[in-house]
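Continuing the batch. This is chain 6 of the set; chains 1 through 5 are on the previous pages. Same settings as before, nothing changed between runs. Recording input and output for traceability.
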Amino acid sequence: MTIIGAGIVGICCALSLQERGVQVRLIDRGAPGQETSFGNAGVISPWSIVPQAVPGIWKSIPGMLLNPSGPLSVQARFWPRMIPWGLRFLSKSSASSTRRVADAMELLCGPSVMLFRRHLSGTGHEDLVVDSCYVHAFRKAEKASLADLGYAIRHEKGAEMEMVGADALHRLEPALSRDFKAAILIKGQARARAPGRIAKVLAEKILQQGGSFVSAEVTALERAGDDGWWVRTTGEDISAQRIILAAGVWSAALLKPLGLSVPLAAERGYHVEFPHAALALENSVMDVDAKIVASAMEGGIRVAGSSEFATPDAPANPRKKALLARQAKAMLPDLEMRDVRFWMGRRPSFPDSLPALGEINGTPGLFAAFGHSHYGLMMAPKTGELVADLVAGVVPNLDLSPFDPGRF
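Output for chain 6:
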């Protein structure tokens, strides 16, 4: 089985196929898991099941766009694509649509902690995933409400949550600014101590189990008769009977010459990492107002955030470094700022926050596994399970229509 893309989704697809006795080959231009999968906030959350499009989101979008310090920005040359994508996004923001999408997200996110621990078992690096809460911290106590739709959906599905005041919050995470007056603790979570190293460890496991890795950039996919494919690369061309396309935001460009158009956007995210942080965090903490997440990593304290829509090849926006560093200091006043590291990645985002999974109509042998938006780390292991079953001809007793690659 040939898998295009060696990010965390492609890696998990490979591991699940190997568990089913299938030989696998990964193709990627870079080292496994060192692009978009490398720099996320490390949240592994069975309860991150609330999509980006929620009721009332339309009211806040203009303010976010007009605020230079806001969490949302759009590159000028991307606006012609942003408008139709945004209209599709807003069409998914009703309460009923939010609930339907949450049901689908639960299917993918629910077993994330268990499956990561299963994949890491026996590697000697099981400690890369640690138990934690997901702390949603509020500067205005009145904004913290378990009755809000997102928390209500989690509660209905069995999440254990607790609302706490300022004193309890600062006993839990003493490093947080006293400006935070309340928090909602979402329990039963985990966090990755180094998402990039998890990918590296799991890629090594794939190789140890007989898989292979081809370092090359894929330039095109072409049919080879009725029962196969040519994968054109910057190196040698590769013959494949079946392909899993897990190339993230670059998947759309590979599909377009086949006559397939998908509304996949590069929603870029950034992080700053502080190697000399001189403080501790025991949990992943979201500053709800700034829409940033802080978490302790092997390399220091990482603060990640921003939704910047742009062309995939656009250079990183250097202003994001100063903005995130300033927001990190407001969140963690004692943060040591020396030698800050700066990173940008490209989230592959569909308007409904759901990925494309399964065989693509009209292209036998070509399977989609891309478009995981903000949720790639936690959705990857179950994606691997589902796609491996579909490749093997096992139809899961689940409704996979929300992930249909042709749904748009």
